[in-house]
Amino acid sequence: MDHTELLRILSKLSNAPETKILSGACDVEDIGDGFMNHVLRIRSRENPDMTVVVKHSPSYHKFIPDQPLPAGRINLEFCSLNKFDELHPGCVPKPYVLSNEHSLVIMEDLHDYKTMRKALMEGEFHMEAVKKVAETMAILHRKTHRKCVSETQFAELVNRFKNDEMLSMMDCAFFTFPLLPYHKTNQYSAEVKAQLPRIYGDQILQENASKIRARHIAMKQCLVHGDFSTEAVMVKKDSAKVKIIDAEFAYIGPAAHDVGTLLANYIFSYYSHKLYPTEESPGFYKNLEDAMKTTLSIYLKDLNDYLTPDEIKSTVSDIAGFVGCYIFARIIGRIKTFDMTGRPLSEVKCVDIGIRLLQRCTEITNQQQLLDCIFKS
After folding, report:
1. pLDDT of residue 64
2. H/E stretch holding 26
3. Largest CB tally within 10 Å, which of 6, 96, 115, 260?
4. What's the whole-model pTM score?
């Protein structure tokens, strides 16, 4: 969208107290690097300290213009952000104004935050932030879990967060195409290509991956973020303050989806730092091992309040499966993760972990078994 046209549109959305700056002269800065949306910072010329962020969701993919995207996804993201803020105040940037007509949301500017992925790539780590992320995920899941709310409340959640088009897109990109032998959309290094027969020729792995795919679509447990990666977590340097962003994939689904996605991202960072260490911080990868252990401990402890031991075992098994599928999606599929770019040794190691997890996920029923599968060859 042309910046002049955008400012004209925004000037008509300046009625809220938080968006009054849009009625005056403003500058526009593109700050987004995602695949689907445009994210812009709007800054008042009169008072440069006053800013808001605009997220614009076009009906096409930013880098694949011939791929259509659901037009109404910005509405669901606005609803999701408001719900998350209601459940756990302050855990997301405050959403101010929604314009369905122009497919945009105006929200709080997290100008002094950066994505957790970027922080980890730059060698920044704060255990209190890791704990906060795990606690936030546990709270959001518990407060919307079908075992913790009434049948009426849960039915309302299912209806409110029906996200079939985005769910279908996620199903193709993360749970179908990467598992199909040499699918045309897949992209991978020569080193990863050499590992593909181990995936495509393993019947047990393929059957377990199919079960995880079915759970992704059909299992309705709680409100999940749907793409809980380190790119969807904003952190403030040297602080425990975190914010969760990019909630357009939110839906009522399996809790293990969010946990598995976050763990897979920690695995990427772990092996990126371990196999390609920097001179300044050769042991940085150990922080990521601690992050995984801490995340699982916090999250699984919270489950004890409302799930049976057998249900917790099943959840751990599903987490293992979701980690495996996510690893394949980001290394074999089209949508890559920046912290693995140009690091084939890390890619191959992560693929190996994904294979083990999907081969053994039905046997993995506790935290130690899951960690052993990740860290032990």
Report:
1. 67
2. strand 26-30
3. 260
4. 0.96
